[in-house]
């Protein structure tokens, strides 16, 4: 059976060049970068090389990149670290309703500890209105945290405009760029970003490694306490092989950024146009203008997402769904809900994400199977265009 | 999909008794697309016996499998026998459902009873098995019925 992976926003395979770069750092160059003897120096140099590679991808200085155990840790650190460091200045954070749970659940945790949080609405395309950001600012606001690219619908947020507003009010701007990294051009100076979360495994690097960009001079408390690693800001013996892999993946992402965006978005546009023309009653969610190059988030009316997902899986196709039935909590996607999409339509929503290994043959195979599966499930469904939803 | 056993997968991928009956003797609709599951079951009754049943379901794999199994279980049964079927029996016949999916069997059980209720209403009949049954009860009220560990 053919296997087609179309969930590159969930994770990506480690590229061969990345794996090759990592392998020597497990058994051969295993020295602890904090040690003083020569074999440890090799580890230290590899660590700093990787820091430079990640910094280069985002237009930062190497000493502004702090490695973490992933995007979630970076998000937790940014919110908790700033809330703590600036507690004498204020206790208000502004974020949005469509953030990743690493932000939302950290914000909820902070609310239990005396921090006020404003969760901004988004428009029907999932975009935050900078005017709403400005209106939400109070004299207690210490941080604005808004994701650069949404993970479900791929909407790109107006970070540069929001950063300008933040700085006009003397407020720090954090952005969760886990989905954006390697998929949209990022320049922290040009965009006015003070803090930014990144992850290795979304850009063909390994899992379990990420980074927080912290602009020089930004006040932030430590999150992981212990040794003096990461310029005394993040304790713990470095995940050296992982960091080397993340660095290599960042280097490749920078080299390939333009061709990656062009190729992936072309395949994505083809996929969307074929699906919407071959399958009636399909709706593309999100913005077509401000969109992650590989993202196609599509609602199929009158059927449910988990049943589609399973039938696709039986045909070797991997996708994800916004349906409640697939989640352990049985709650529908908070992102699609915030965009005002009716719940019955959310249940029938799939997210397809295209990546570097995806081919046109893959896309054609998925379209062929999707047409069959949607038809089969619609024949089973008591709701239809003729009957309506009731 | 590792989350479902082979019986559930078989009923999901090759569901039995899909469709609608012309001039059905009873129709039961339960759930709503807003909740993520909606089932319609139609029955044909002759001499107090369910001679045919058909379903249409909007929902996840276990909702479709539960509907398919439920219709299999009631065809050939008397009304009283069909009313005695519990959601637990539907789960058992399916060889088990994941804990978060038990409510799908509750929906199927409720849809069957709704179809029989409709038949009883139309024909002025009363059944002990329908005592206290409210076809319009909120789906939420049934979420905790006979859940498995």
UniProtKB/TrEMBL annotation, chain A:
Record-annotated Aminotransferase class V domain positions: 4-366
Range of residues in the leader sequence: none
Membrane-spanning parts: none
Gene3D superfamilies per UniProt: 1.10.260.50, Aspartate Aminotransferase, domain 1, Type I PLP-dependent aspartate aminotransferase-like (Major domain)
Keywords: 2Fe-2S, Cytoplasm, Iron, Iron-sulfur, Metal-binding, Pyridoxal phosphate, Transferase
Pathway(s) where this gene product acts: Cofactor biosynthesis; iron-sulfur cluster biosynthesis
N6-(pyridoxal phosphate)lysine PTM sites in chain numbering: 202
Taxonomic superkingdom: Bacteria
EC number(s) given by UniProt: 2.8.1.7
Cofactor: pyridoxal 5'-phosphate
Catalytic residues identified in the record: 325
Amino-acid positions noted as binding [2Fe-2S] cluster in the UniProt annotation, renumbered to this chain: 325
Annotated localization: Cytoplasm
The UniProt record lists the keyword Transferase: yes
GO molecular function: cysteine desulfurase activity
Reactions catalysed: (sulfur carrier)-H + L-cysteine = (sulfur carrier)-SH + L-alanine
Keyword Cytoplasm carried by entry: yes
Family annotation (PANTHER family): CYSTEINE DESULFURASE (PTHR11601:SF34), CYSTEINE DESULFURYLASE FAMILY MEMBER (PTHR11601)
Assembly with partners or alone: Homodimer. Forms a heterotetramer with IscU, interacts with other sulfur acceptors.
NCBIfam families: FeS_nifS, PRK02948.1
Its biological purpose: Master enzyme that delivers sulfur to a number of partners involved in Fe-S cluster assembly, tRNA modification or cofactor biosynthesis. Catalyzes the removal of elemental sulfur atoms from cysteine to produce alanine. Functions as a sulfur delivery protein for Fe-S cluster synthesis onto IscU, an Fe-S scaffold assembly protein, as well as other S acceptor proteins.
Family, similarity comment: Belongs to the class-V pyridoxal-phosphate-dependent aminotransferase family. NifS/IscS subfamily.
Protein name (record): Cysteine desulfurase IscS
Species this protein is from: Gallibacter intestinalis
